[in-house]
Design brief:
There is one protein chain. This protein is an alpha+beta fold. The protein has twelve helices and ten strands. It has helices at residues 2-35, 54-60, 64-68, 72-75, 83-90, 138-200, 205-236, 239-243, 246-261, 278-299, 328-331, 338-348; strands spanning 39-44, 49-52, 97-104, 110-121, 127-136, 264-269, 303-311, 314-321, 352-356, 364-370. The strands form two sheets. Strands 2-1-5-4-3 form a five-stranded antiparallel beta sheet. Strand 3 and strand 4 (110-121) form a beta hairpin. Helix 9 runs parallel beside helix 10 and helix 10 (278-299) runs antiparallel to helix 12. The termini are far apart. Bound molecules: adenosine-5'-triphosphate and magnesium ion.
Length: 376
């Protein structure tokens, strides 16, 4: 029967063509999978690897056969941190998602990878396994870690330098006060003695008066120098800070500020001052000085109000001025070093700096520092 034969011939060639097309498309996908820079990994719901490419094996430091026999327990580290990784690998998170995970290579080292995962479903729409595209990010992670470490070291260095600076200042202030101060006082006593003795010397009155005049000038000069030495010591580190505490030092600094700038100041503080350690006292005082300098330099204010309080186990320092207010970029801390320095210093004690504008005011800066040490 010729008709039947013809039909059979037609069917065969049709089938052959579609088989070839299928082979071609399979070949194409295999090429893609084999040359991909990403690892490709299909894991079923029980954690068994049902498919993996060479790149994944290479990333994990295993042979392809080893990867195919792999259970996810072998690549996921023990401990709670691995919990999310398990969920991701098993596709328990459901929909398509991307996350960074730490996997364990065969040699025990850590492989940081970005997993882009999506569920694979069977014909009935049930999820049978999960497809992961795996990108190695160990290098990036290492750099991130280095950057973080570097930042941390920089912070430590800054804090160390800040401490050294404060120590130096204290030392210089004491040295100047003791050495120069004593020398000058001695000189003053000597000059006074000279003046007294000159009275008893039998010289023409005119000559004695000329010399006495010179001695008075010298005494005047020494007095001025003593005064200046005292001022320099006080500027380096006000003794009032160590003797009477933070509130008294702030009050003193404000009255100096008023005298020099003509800007009015108001100060509100506690009646009974809480015990503040040296770190907090110094930090708060230096922060206060920078904020006050900023108000004088940038705000054009005619009034500065300061509040110092201890509330809810933290000490709060608030400084408000009625000036022009602080602009957006300065608030985010990208302009000067002053505010950056404050943030760092306060941060070291577990505190914070808030900047903004209070209604009806210019700039408001609020510094909070926990009273108790965080580390216990
Ligand atoms: N009280 C204020 N009123 C208005 N603007 C302010 C006030 N305080 C700060 N600023 C703004 O914030 C910026 C950053 O202040 P910051 O103290 O960090 O730097 P600076 O004072 O300019 O320089 P320095 O590093 O010497 O302190 C200032 O340049 C200023 O524009
Ligand atoms: Mg400043």
């Amino acid at each position: 029967r010729p008709q039947f034969l013809q039909g059979l011939l037609l069917d065969t060639s049709e089938q052959k063509r579609s088989e070839e097309a299928l082979k071609e498309s399979e070949e194409r996908f295999r090429k893609i999978v084999d040359t991909a820079h990403e690892g490709i990994w299909v894991v079923d719901a029980s954690g068994r690897t049902s498919y993996a490419n060479h790149r994944l094996a290479q990333m994990l430091g295993m042979s392809l056969q080893e990867v195919l026999n792999l259970s996810f327990h072998q690549v996921v580290g023990q401990g709670t941190a691995s919990h999310g990784v398990q969920e991701t690998l098993l596709g328990e998170t459901g929909q398509h998602n991307t996350r960074e995970v730490a996997l364990r290579r065969k040699d025990g080292t850590v492989l940081w990878a970005l997993l882009a995962s999506s569920p694979l479903e069977n014909g009935a729409g049930q999820r049978v396994s999960t497809l992961h595209m795996v990108t190695e990010i160990s290098e990036r992670k290492k750099m991130e870690e280095q950057l973080r470490e570097y930042g941390e070291r920089l912070r430590l260095l800054a804090s160390h330098l800040e401490g050294v600076r404060e120590e130096e200042r204290t030392w210089i202030a004491r040295e100047i006060h003791d050495e120069l101060g004593q020398g000058l006082t001695g000189l003053k006593l000597d000059l006074a003695e000279l003046d007294r003795r000159l009275t008893r010397v039998e010289w023409p009155e005119q000559d004695k008066n000329a010399l006495k005049g010179r001695i008075q000038e010298m005494l005047h000069c020494v007095d001025g120098t003593i005064q200046r030495v005292r001022e320099i010591c006080t500027q380096l580190r006000p003794p009032i800070l160590d003797n009477l505490g933070l509130a008294a030092a702030i009050e003193w600094q404000l009255s100096e500020f008023e005298r020099k700038t003509g800007v009015s100041t108001r100060f509100h503080t506690w009646e009974v001052e809480p015990e503040l350690d040296m770190d907090r006292t110094t930090t708060l005082f230096r922060v206060f000085q920078e904020l006050l300098t900023n108000a004088a330099r940038h705000s054009g204010a005619s009034l500065v109000e300061v509040r110092l309080e201890a509330l809810h186990k933290e000490v709060m320092l608030e400084l408000r001025d009625n000036g022009c207010g602080i602009q957006g970029q300065a608030i985010s801390g990208r302009s000067g070093l002053g505010l950056l320095g404050i943030r760092e210093r306060v941060g070291l004690l577990g505190g914070s700096l808030e900047l903004g504008s209070a209604p009806g005011w210019g700039t408001r800066a609020l510094v909070r520092i926990p009273l108790a040490r965080q580390e216990g």
